[in-house]
What we know:
Number of domains of chain A: 2
Structural class of chain A: mainly beta
Helix content of chain A: under 10%
Strand order of the largest sheet of chain A: 6-7-8-9-17-18-13-12-11-10
Protein name (chains A, B): Sec-dependent nitrous-oxide reductase
Oligomer: homodimer
Keywords (chains A, B): Copper, Metal-binding, Oxidoreductase, Signal
Shape of chain A: globular
CATH class of the largest domain in chain A: Mainly Beta
GO cellular component, one term (chains A, B): cell envelope
Distance between the termini of chain A: 79 Å
Signal peptide (chains A, B): 1-22
Amino acid sequence: MKTTFKLIMLLLSATFLLSSCGNNNGKSSGSDGALRSSNAEKVYVAPGEHDEFYAFMSGGYSGNLTVYGLPSGRMFKEIPVFSQFPTSGYGYSEETVPMLNTSFGFVPWDDSHHPDISQTNGELDGRWIFINGNNTPRIARISLKTFETEEIIEVPNSAGNHSSSFVTENTEYVVAGTRFSIPVPQKDMPISEYKGNFKGALSFIKVDQETGRMAIKFQVLMPGFNYDLSHPGRNKSHGWFFFTTYNTEEANSLLEVNASQNDKDFIAAINWKKIEEYVNNGGGKIMPTNYAHNVYDEHSHSATSTMIKEVLTVDPTEIPGAVYLLPTPKSPHGCDVDPSGEYIIGNGKLSADLTIHSFTKMLDAIENKKFDGDAYGIPILNFEDILAGTVKSGGLGPLHTEFDDKGNAYTTFFISSEVVKWKVGTWEVIDRKPTYYSVGHLMIPGGNSRKPFGKYVVAMNKITKDRYLPTGPELEHSAQLYDITGDKMELIYDFPTHGEPHYAAAIPADLIKDNSQKIYRLDENKHPYAVTNQSDAKVTRNGNEVHISMSMIRSHFTPDNIEGIKVGDKVYFHITNLEQDFDVPHGFAMIGANTSEILVMPGQTKTILWEPKQVGVWPFYCTDFCSALHQEMQGYIRVSPKESNIDLSWSLDGE
Amino acid sequence: MKTTFKLIMLLLSATFLLSSCGNNNGKSSGSDGALRSSNAEKVYVAPGEHDEFYAFMSGGYSGNLTVYGLPSGRMFKEIPVFSQFPTSGYGYSEETVPMLNTSFGFVPWDDSHHPDISQTNGELDGRWIFINGNNTPRIARISLKTFETEEIIEVPNSAGNHSSSFVTENTEYVVAGTRFSIPVPQKDMPISEYKGNFKGALSFIKVDQETGRMAIKFQVLMPGFNYDLSHPGRNKSHGWFFFTTYNTEEANSLLEVNASQNDKDFIAAINWKKIEEYVNNGGGKIMPTNYAHNVYDEHSHSATSTMIKEVLTVDPTEIPGAVYLLPTPKSPHGCDVDPSGEYIIGNGKLSADLTIHSFTKMLDAIENKKFDGDAYGIPILNFEDILAGTVKSGGLGPLHTEFDDKGNAYTTFFISSEVVKWKVGTWEVIDRKPTYYSVGHLMIPGGNSRKPFGKYVVAMNKITKDRYLPTGPELEHSAQLYDITGDKMELIYDFPTHGEPHYAAAIPADLIKDNSQKIYRLDENKHPYAVTNQSDAKVTRNGNEVHISMSMIRSHFTPDNIEGIKVGDKVYFHITNLEQDFDVPHGFAMIGANTSEILVMPGQTKTILWEPKQVGVWPFYCTDFCSALHQEMQGYIRVSPKESNIDLSWSLDGE
Lengths: 655, 655
């Protein structure tokens, strides 16, 4: 144990040394005038031009998904997913509160990690993007037509939903693996009895090919390890899914020492097609549980949350040939599969070398039953039997590997702060470039598919320090853009990233941009309180509930004067934006209300609740600078005492 | 009325035509290879280099303040101000919830509009930046040392706090004017009785020069107009403050027609030094009211909210020489003062021309009592007597003017979508450049001070449409960067902006960057539950309240195993980050908790509440990728049934 601990401390010290170097290293790459000028032109997207790629980055502790353009590094949008988002009122408006419902109740924000774009035949198809909620385990599906979150499904029996949300090569499944093992089902038991008793659930969520709707097909209940990352087999290995494990020691305390004892942990290889067949034939066990399934409907502009009461679990030891364990050096993080599907790369984060497993050799070993024992009944393959090769990288702390379209792979090294380029098949190192500082994951557009677009690699760095002007103790994270069209990588740009992007996925803009929706059609608006014509605006009372069906159009609210509201009322503003032009939102703000402000896109209806507590005459106004007369887009509401007998009245002057 | 209405409709149609043009216009400016290359180099900040300016942009309906670098257009930080912010837990953590307290209760988000940087002798001094909450009227003060919100003061008797938050030239005051007039004090009355009965409060908030602490010194109760924007006098006009008004018709409905009847509205000129003297001598009337004053203490890392029960109001008609009205063409928006303090520019948004008032002529007219009647007892000056000149711009819809350091002014025109450069003094138009599309405000670093830094102008555009890759119906807003070092402006870059930036302020980086704080000192941490040494970590119970004082350091939580928690407990996690290195945050996430996740900077303590509802063993983990062993930074909490008699216990293994 002492040796391991010392090694770790040494590695960590290396991190500090490397990460404390100044920014001169960065400067040197830009100090040559001609090179600087060439790099400037490479990342410059002039006014009127468009970026070549959409990059989607997880928000980490923002709980959202951000959209960047490459090569410019400009952020085009923050899509609210697992978190309340004041800008659009997501998670606050009556219609979207159900999106954040879980079996634990309403959870206002989460930690989002790994976006993955839907695929057909192993290639990016640009229909949807999926992302995992890490803390309160969930998977979200976002439309790449509207760039809005359409669905969130909770994952039961899971805790720290980290080895998620990656898709199989026809998006048959989006897969979610627990990071932490827990009692399944949960029960009150001593933490010290973890070993041998806790389980790790790997969930396979079926995706409807027409609608994108998700449903948990089955959960594989694995030994109580930690499951870190995962990737699908593709091409020849389609039908399999690979998960890195760590803490195979099953320690429950002081993991930074106790979970690094074993020289090798595992990659778990799951033959999901075999398990699918098993459950289709009635296999598996239905377990009572409780998890939320939240769906947003784009016509009613409203979400509903349904609680689901059972889940199908399978015991992998009961399905011969379903699961194998591939020994992999020390606490691997990333688990990556090359475009051919033959090579499975284990990035052993406390190791110097990269280990590459051969899928063909794995099948051979399985066929020949060459096992090296088992773990809780799951066969362990022999390391040497399945080894395709080793990359003698010379780096420290490999984390994640992606691929280009020329047979090269690119691996990040957290501790030695660099990206290393190497040749798939020969395992030779071709190039290495420093990152500033402590790179986590990296991304090549399509780098997790059969068809990567090897023009750029983006390094997502964990330490920012002096890369930008300082902004106090808290800094944005930082990405770096490398041109990888030549033999050598060229660092061409630094750009800050919002939240803590852990992971990213990117797609050529041409594959999706023409499909982007511009407005919501008013004639398809099915919201129960929608006002599709100004003259239909109205105010109705039901006890102390008041419903205001209000319209907005440049530059008028209808109604704009309302009387007869009383202290203690629950006032619901249902606001419809009547515009049908692209990019003409209106906003609505009501002073002092709890959910007091909302942005509404053309053709959309949103609802906020106001509970007036004080008598008086209170203004409302449009929050989006919508027209030359935006400042005139306002109105008043009179609030009378609770006991007042003033009747509801309102003006429809705007007709 | 009909003529006015037709004019307005014509202007609005013009907006549509202009805003629907394609992006080829933008492209033309970049289509010449040499020019494109030169512009690329102008905006390129190579890896290892730093931007020249900090630009601070309001978030609009995000309620926050964003920090950009110029010329790169990269966003360095989003500072939470008036809105809950999942990324840092602002407005969710126990310590920061009081920051969003108001007289209306807890308000989770707002609409932020006009940042202004503190000044000394009329020049930017980089101590603080102020910004207004528009919907629930408030002013916030943000430290430019920590880039965190330190204080928020509510503004009573106000509604739509829009003509805010601008500072006088030694930051004696930050000024906040109501946009909407309301009954003062509020009362239940018919909206139709608005005219003559509602009031518009203009608030002067004193700023303590040592601490920055704000206190409302007095409110001027003005006639029931709308007050749109404001700027301080400077240099020779120091001691005065100028506010644009519109809706001097005092209409209460259909304002887009009814508030555009008068050919001229007013700029209200307030002699605040005279009023200050008046109130220092006992003038004014104390009015009972109720407003929140929220202060964040950087040593206890905690905010407190105090309710203040009275405010000093003044009736301007009782103070001779205090307030005058300057007739200004049609519904002016921006109200801008040139660096010399001599010229006051009214940007009449429904007018084609810019009207420039002369401060010297204004004083003359006042001295000679050349009035053209009064409005509710406030003298109206004669338009011709105070006119310095008119800019025959040829544009439509002037909104906002800023200044460079060479005697030029730059005005945005919303309807004709352009920036027009003109000469101060001769009023001749020198240059005009299109904006894409519908520009609102613009910004030159220091452009609202005695000493502008005239290198760039940033146009903040209200319509984005095709400027970037499409992202569904909802788009980010868009800024455009012009090089203004030559005679002609040169459009060099487009960059998207987060939220809806209404307004911006910028400062040369050299003025503040060396002052930026890097960590919070652990030896200054006065949080009552801070753990400054791992061995002090502990868990205590008081009835059903459990306080966990927990430490975080690479790569360990102390304690990391906790038992004895019961269903129904209120569990407070007080989490201290023991790191003392720059840019080493840790995060904490607890599954399914309502406020379940928090980011903590080095030396800081934050608290979140967890109310476990289910028995079981639940993990927690670090949310910030902090070290090579980040994935090992985790722990477990055992939750037993309510009636269980298991005592609290925890492990301090990490010592």
